[in-house]
Automatic annotation (TrEMBL):
This is Radical SAM protein. Its cofactor is [4Fe-4S] cluster. GO terms for molecular function: 4 iron, 4 sulfur cluster binding; catalytic activity; cobalamin binding; metal ion binding. Keywords: Iron, Iron-sulfur, Metal-binding, Methyltransferase, S-adenosyl-L-methionine, Transferase.
Length: 497
């Protein structure tokens, strides 16, 4: 059948109705890690870039979060551009907004094919496929699957043979005969789309977002580019819901090709946003060797684990421009680290931060309070004592949130801390008043939020810490970012007297 060229729009929905994770006493959201900045939706951009490279269809992208797009403005955009296919990227905690975008599209253009991709269909394929206003979903990695879907739609052909692409009807036989794919979380029980060779994927086309400026309060410029050098995480931390467990690396050559392309576009700062960047010492050294071979000295940082840190690899990275590492510390006791299955000890954590301090690498400690092994206020405060003693340059302190498809959540259901089926009900009928569960067996949520406030104040308002940060500030942008961050911190905390 002859193919017709069509117009395809991918949307990162507004974040106006995100699930409340840590409500304060007034019902609003308390300070969380996402208050530290916004990042480009790389998953959706990978999908659209692949479609653009492999076909001649017209490709459009709308990041409603970065552009602060309201629903009336989005309606005008859709009315003006009249896409034939709309792809909506999604997270379960943002499902209300994803569904609202789909409803809006169908109101304006009833004949437009609306497809949901992203994290949510991986977590809840059955419920996602049955949602109103969605004609299809993509379960898994969408580059190849979505391109094949669009090609079938352009030719007027059936698309239900595509691995990972489902409708309300086509998913039913797979639900009746569930499978186990060890590359994904065990709950992904339908055949999912998967990319074996991520090096074969085209480099993200940032022309879709170059008019936008992404930054956060830990950065130094207004031109931040995020890069994925790998996919997946093989670790099994009990609280983590990263859906893809198989780990695939890109070559250092491919990664630095992307860096060079970003530099040509004017980007000045780089964040490696992998689920796990520093899986081995060799990976870091290979990247640095390639940067040096091309004569590139960039400002970069990454998210990583302490158990794979070595002084030699970090010294090499520092010489090639590494500015900062965000470590998932999570808690301050060996018992807690063992229960969380972090694969490390408090001694190794201290050593990693000592190495970074000696080398002049800034550190971020991601921390969680309200864990099931913290049975009293004193237990939480002892964990915070460890954080203060660690003395990182920044700390992001969360109250534990019990997300589905994690071992922690299953344990909470088994102990009666969480009622079973809540997330399935929400996924079938997303509601704005849904609130994430917390481990409140020993400490109730108001107490935990008060302890979060206590931890932030104790960490950030130390005179020595304030003086050190004034000395370390390198630019006006960084200074303004820090002032903005303190403003958020004070404003959020002062709502709790």
């Amino acid at each position: 059948m002859e193919e017709t060229l069509i117009r395809v729009l991918l949307i990162n929905p507004p974040a106006l109705n995100t699930v409340i994770e840590n409500p304060d006493e007034q019902g609003g959201e308390f300070l969380e890690a996402d208050a530290f900045g916004d990042f480009p939706p790389l998953g959706a951009l990978y999908v659209l870039t692949h479609l653009k490279e492999k076909t001649d269809h017209e490709c459009l992208f709308k990041d409603c979060v970065a552009e602060r797009t309201s629903y009336p403005r989005l309606r005008e955009y859709i009315r003006e551009h009249r896409p034939d296919v709309v792809g909506i990227t999604s997270f379960t905690v943002c499902l209300v907004d994803a569904c609202e975008v789909a409803r809006l599209v169908k109101e304006e253009l009833p004949g437009t094919h609306v497809c949901m991709g992203g994290h949510h269909p991986i977590a809840y394929p059955k419920e996602a496929a049955e949602l109103e206003n969605f004609d299809s979903i993509v379960v898994g990695e969408g580059e190849i699957a979505f391109t094949e879907l669009v090609e079938c739609l352009a030719r007027g052909e059936d698309f239900t043979h595509i691995r990972g692409v489902y409708t309300r009807e086509s998913i039913q036989p797979h639900l009746a005969n569930p499978i186990t794919d060890k590359r994904f979380l065990a709950r992904v029980n339908v055949p999912a789309a998967y990319v074996d060779d991520i090096d074969a994927l085209p480099i993200v086309d940032r022309s879709f977002i170059r008019h936008l400026r992404y930054q956060n309060i830990l950065g130094v410029t207004k031109d931040l580019a995020t890069i994925l050098s790998s996919r997946g995480c093989p670790y099994r931390c009990t609280f983590c819901d990263v859906p893809i467990k198989s780990y695939r690396e890109r070559s250092a050559q491919s990664v630095v090709d992307e860096v060079e392309r970003c530099l040509m576009m004017g980007y000045k700062e780089f964040r490696f946003y992998d689920d796990l960047f520093n899986i081995t010492e060799k990976k870091i050294v290979s990247l640095c060797d390639e940067l040096d071979r091309r004569g590139l000295k960039i400002v970069w940082d990454f998210r990583g684990r302490v158990n794979t840190v070595t002084r030699e690899s970090l010294a090499r990275a520092k010489a090639s421009g590494l500015r900062m590492i965000a470590f998932g510390v999570e808690t301050g006791t060996d018992e807690g680290l063992k229960i969380l299955r972090k694969g490390t000890t408090t001694a190794k954590v201290r050593k990693a931060f000592e190495i970074c301090r000696e080398l002049g690498i800034l550190t971020v400690a991601d921390y969680i309070i309200g864990q099931p092994f913290e049975r009293s206020v004193e237990d939480v405060k002892r964990s915070i004592d460890f954080l203060i003693g660690l003395d990182p340059d920044y700390a992001q302190i969360s109250v534990l949130k019990l997300y589905p498809n994690t071992e922690m959540y299953d344990n909470a259901v088994a102990k009666g801390v969480v009622a079973p089926g809540r997330w399935q009900d929400y996924s079938r009928s997303p509601a704005k008043d849904f609130v994430v569960d917390h481990w409140d067996e020993f400490l109730d949520l108001p107490t935990l939020v008060s302890l979060q406030k206590y931890a932030y104040r104790r960490f950030y308002f130390r005179p020595r810490y304030i003086l050190r940060n004034v000395i370390q500030t390198r630019s006006l942008v960084e200074f303004r970012s820090k002032v903005n961050g303190v403003g958020k911190l004070l404003g959020k905390n002062l709502r709790l007297s």
